[in-house]
Design brief:
about 50% helix; alpha/beta; 12 helices; single chain
Length: about 260
């Protein structure tokens, strides 16, 4: 059971690959960590620098990709962008829930059709709720009358109704999302920090890996705590250990992660 839990733990760890001026440097990190993390997150920084080539090379090296571009536009534009993500073969991609239910619905339909037409695997579609860099004061400044604790579950419910696979949300919001959206709804949590202090940290609503898993997160996203470690492999392995310990504590309480992620 221990080995099974450890393997499951690794699959749940997403490494944020926003690294460097040189694509070869980014790929060195893929080579270093591909046996220690489950998915590589390619965000706006890496994708703008290196484009689809980075995604394809990660996959050639045996890695899975979470394309973190947070699509947010009119429904037709987002649906077309999502079709391109399917053609790239990514395992996950995301869009903003604040783009609205129609945008999410049309994207889900377009992705299903493209996956069937091209023979590609159906990716996990994630809706971004409230960025973990924003707290309630930030939301008030932006004109929201509700707190993040109130806004996030509502956005998650809209995403569920639109047919989206799951959400990206703070681990602090997992319990309320689970209550509304059920056990099969996928929750990916960024803003994960261990005991290591990260210089210039802009994440505000954060938890440790074990805490996130115990609350019911399916995947956690970690960047700087691994990237800035003196021993990145050991840091990744230590996070997997924390995930595994969290899984042991909740084992039998929740069903496994949906197969869409594979």
């Amino acid at each position: 059971m221990k080995n099974k839990l450890n393997n499951n733990a690794k699959e749940r760890l997403i490494f944020a690959l926003d690294i460097g001026e040189d694509i070869n440097r980014a790929l060195e990190w893929v080579e270093l960590l591909k046996d220690h993390v489950g998915i590589f997150k390619v965000g706006k920084e890496s994708y703008t620098r290196f484009g689809p080539e980075l995604v394809l090379k990660i996959q050639e090296m045996g890695g899975k990709v979470f394309l973190d571009l947070k699509f947010h536009d009119i429904p037709n534009t987002v649906a077309r962008a999502a079709e391109a993500a399917v053609k790239l073969g990514v395992s996950m991609f995301n869009l903003h829930a604040l783009g609205g239910k129609k945008m999410m619905e049309e994207t889900v339909i377009a992705v299903e059709k493209m996956a069937e037409k091209s023979g590609a695997s159906m990716p996990c579609i994630l809706a971004v709720t409230v960025l973990t860099s924003l707290n309630d004061d930030d939301l008030e400044m932006l004109g929201f009358s509700e707190t993040a604790e109130e806004i996030v579950p509502n956005l998650a419910r809209i995403a569920l109704d639109a047919g989206v696979s799951g959400v990206v949300a703070s681990a602090r919001d997992v319990v309320s999302i689970r209550k509304i959206c059920g056990e099969d709804f996928i929750i990916v949590t960024p803003g994960i920090r261990g005991s290591m202090k990260v210089a210039g940290d802009d994440q505000k609503r954060i938890l440790t890996p074990g805490e996130a898993i115990r609350r019911g997160a399916d995947f956690i996203v970690v960047g700087r705590p691994i990237l800035m470690s003196d021993d990145p492999v050991s840091a990744a392995d230590e996070i997997c250990k924390e995930i595994s310990e969290g899984l042991e504590q909740v084992r039998g309480q929740r069903p496994g992660v949906k197969s869409q992620n594979k």
